[in-house]
Amino acid sequence: MIMERLKAETRIHHNRLENEPLSRGLTAADVDRARYARVLAVYYGVYAPLEAQLESTVDWRQLGFDLAPRLKTPLLVRDLALMGIGADQLSALPQCSRLPQISDLGAAIGCMYVLEGSTLGGQLITRHIGPALHLNADNGLAFFNSYGPDVGPMWKAFKQFAETHAAGREEAIITAAGATFEALEHWLGAGALLFDRDYVPNAALTAIVKNSGSNAVSGPLSRNSASAN
Which of 95, 133, 112 shows the shortest CA–CA distance to 10? Predict the structure, then answer.
């Protein structure tokens, strides 16, 4: 069973990601809309390029799998707009380039295992952020609350799809899942550095991320460019 293997062989990644400080900061008592907007901006920087690969690599329709309602990038765009980040600012946000290569169905399933699994954790953040910032799926909380009450059935449907198409692709699935976890750990960890300062100049983000051991960033991000109105 590929799902059992994935759970066992990526457990260490899952535990690290569960404890990364960027998202955990959203459950802090002093969370505010500016912090929330900046966290969304960091997530956009990794989800947008990952999901672009997922869309272009596999003919999902031929497989009878509807990818569109599972894409989180449109939800991030919508939430960021509601936080006051317009199209010009969105296009200037940095994007991660240290990504797994999604070149076939096996790699796509491995990547999706991580992204789909994150919707379960998103429910925990939703339960805190919603009341704290008076947000819901219609006014800025669509990303973390992506499937709403359907999160369970959506996860079950993905698991069934993965099991159906795993034969002969097991190693590719496991490898891509691990690489996706590593990309998220790296990018969110670099993003967490933004909160160590009251203000990060646009020109400084690249240096900050490089100092954390990466050259996988392009474009500016500052507190000003990712703050809510």
Answer: 112
Q: Where are the alpha helices (DSSP H) in the chain?
A: 2-9, 11-18, 21-24, 33-57, 73-82, 87-92, 105-133, 151-165, 170-192, 205-211
Q: In the structure encoding, which two tokens stand for residue 10, read together?
A: 């990526």
Q: How far apart are CA 80 and CA 62, in angstroms?
A: 33
145-188 pLDDT, tens digit per residue, is 999 999 999 999 999 999 999 999 999 999 999 999 999 999 99
Among 41-45, 158-162, 218-222, the range scoring the smallest mean pLDDT is 218-222
Determine what percent of the chain is predicted with pLDDT higher than 70.
84
> CA-CA distance, 170 to 221, in Å (whole number)?
38
Q: Which two tokens stand for residue 198?
A: 């009251």
Mean pLDDT, the chain, as a whole number?
A: 84
CA–CA distance, 185 with 212 (Å, rounded to integer): 12
Q: Which residues of 168-189 are buried (b: 16+ CB within 10 A; e: fewer)?
A: ebeebbbebbbbbbbbbebbbb
Q: Could you tell me the pTM of the whole model?
A: 0.84
Percentage of the chain with pLDDT > 90? Answer: 61
- In the chain the domains, ranked by start, together with CATH numbers, are 2-226 (1.20.910.10)
Cα 62–7–17 angle (5° rounding)?
Answer: 100
Cα–Cα distances in angstroms (integers) from residue 194 to residues 23, 94, 139, 199, 203, in the given order: 13, 12, 25, 8, 13
